[in-house]
Design brief:
The protein has helices at 6-30, 32-38, 46-77, 79-98, 103-117, 120-131, 137-162, 168-189, 202-208, 221-226, 228-248, 251-259, 263-295, 298-320, 326-341, 343-355, 359-387, 392-411. By secondary structure, the chain is an all-alpha fold. The protein contains 18 helices and no strands.
């Protein structure tokens, strides 16, 4: 009997959710100039930069606060209902952003949207752990991450085009619609466990070798918080999240201020960064799986690969700052993001390895650190501008340095640690 292919449809559903999420979260950075003009915020002043930075960071603040609770909810109730609720709520918040009358209402909508999107990464990766064998964790997380970056590309390009003839408010309304349709289809079709799905035959079940969804013992929170491997993995996620936040928050403004790119064209140049992360994410997923099969070593497949790619990617970002026109800047940055993007699925696979039977809470904790970095970057960037006499290159170099700090964290990471329950007495 040939195994059915239902697991690939699951991956397609999860990837589409990630795509929609990144379109919705990333469109704000492209529309910053129009929103600032609507709210009477002057981007040429430190005060205006700080106000915009706070709005850009509001999403990540909510994301950070609800990351661990979202992981616990996913572990407790399963991905089917949690992802459905998350997608419906963030879609409503996207539409609500279009109704915002000023700084505080837009900040609130983005904050609530961050809370809603907090469940997508832990729940999606929990589903991958349930629906795919360990030997396929690299490429499947790479596909998931790749669709996140494609969402960033599409959101940037489409938003730039729509701004030419549509208000930013109507753009936000339009972006809310796909998520609602996805949620309704997902809750109807998806099941938390392969054994519960009518489209899965015995051959596919045997191939997946799925573990039970329910946790056999209580979540060992103390061990999660006190394991050094979790600290270092969270540290690299913090610095990577902060560095990549540049693309989704301040890069469009960087291009306008540093290279005089019109607002209607910034989305295309920002898209190059997300294309690089997409290519790097997909190739990184296959590469980490290949190295694991070839060497049998988690050190070479996870740790060494991450150190190498983050270091090279960081230096490529430094080189991009030396470019004198937006095209050469984007091409060098594209190369850097391809290289650094390899680390995404590598880190995701390492987190699944580390999480053991507690993938969703472990992913939540590690991802919380990444989004704390992402929340801080748009707020700190205006201070870097103030300290360097409005040097936008300094913001780029700051982002590059964060990649190098992430590489340092990987040096101290242990590939053998696994979060497990304490044995019963």
């Amino acid at each position: 009997m040939k195994p059915t292919k239902t697991r690939y449809l699951v991956l397609a559903f999860l990837s589409l959710a990630c795509f929609i999420a990144y379109v919705d979260r990333g469109c704000l950075g492209i529309a910053v100039k129009s929103i600032a003009a609507d709210f009477k915020i002057d981007l040429n002043t430190p005060e205006g930069d700080r106000a915009v930075g706070q709005i850009l960071g509001a999403f990540f603040i909510g994301y950070v606060i609800f990351q661990v609770p979202a992981g616990w909810l996913g572990q407790r109730f399963g991905s089917r209902w949690c992802l459905t609720a998350c997608c419906l709520i963030w879609s409503l918040c996207t539409a609500g952003s279009g109704l915002s009358g000023g700084f505080y209402s837009l900040f609130l909508m983005r904050f609530l949207m961050g809370i809603a999107e907090a469940g997508i990464v832990p729940c999606c990766n929990q589903s991958l752990a349930q629906w795919f064998p360990r030997s396929q964790r690299g490429w499947t997380t790479g596909v998931l991450g790749g669709f996140m970056q494609l969402g960033g590309v599409a959101g940037g390009v489409i938003t730039s085009e729509l701004l030419g003839f549509m208000s930013w408010r109507w753009i936000f309304f339009a972006y809310a619609v796909p998520g609602v349709f996805w949620a309704l289809l997902f809750v109807w079709w998806f099941r938390n466990r392969p054994a519960e799905h009518a489209g899965v035959n015995e051959a596919e079940l045997a191939l997946i070798d799925s573990a039970p969804l329910s946790v056999p013992r209580p979540m060992p929170w103390l061990k999660l918080f006190t394991t050094p491997a979790v600290w270092w993995l969270s540290g690299q996620q913090f610095f990577r999240g902060a560095s990549q936040s540049f693309y989704i928050t301040w890069m469009a403004t960087y291009l306008m201020m540093r290279h005089n790119v019109p607002e209607s064209r910034t989305g295309y140049f920002v898209g190059f960064a997300f294309i690089g992360l997409f290519i790097g994410g997909l190739s990184g997923g296959f590469l980490t799986d290949y190295l694991l099969r070839r060497t049998g070593s988690l050190f070479w497949a996870r740790q060494f690969l991450a150190i190498l790619t983050l270091t090279l990617g960081g230096f490529a970002m430094l080189l991009a700052g030396r470019m004198s026109d937006p095209w050469s800047f984007s091409m060098v940055l594209l190369a850097g993001t391809i290289i650094a993007g390899v680390t995404g699925p590598t880190a995701a696979a390492a987190t699944i390895d580390l999480g053991g039977k507690f993938v969703a809470p472990t992913f939540s904790y590690v991802n919380m650190a990444g989004n704390l970095g992402a929340a801080l970057f748009p707020v700190v960037a205006p201070e870097v501008l103030a300290w360097t006499d409005q040097s936008w290159d300094a913001v780029l170099y700051f982002s590059a340095g964060l990649n190098l700090l992430a590489a340092v964290c990987w040096i101290f990471f242990s590939n053998t640690a696994v979060i497990e329950s304490e044995p019963e007495p």
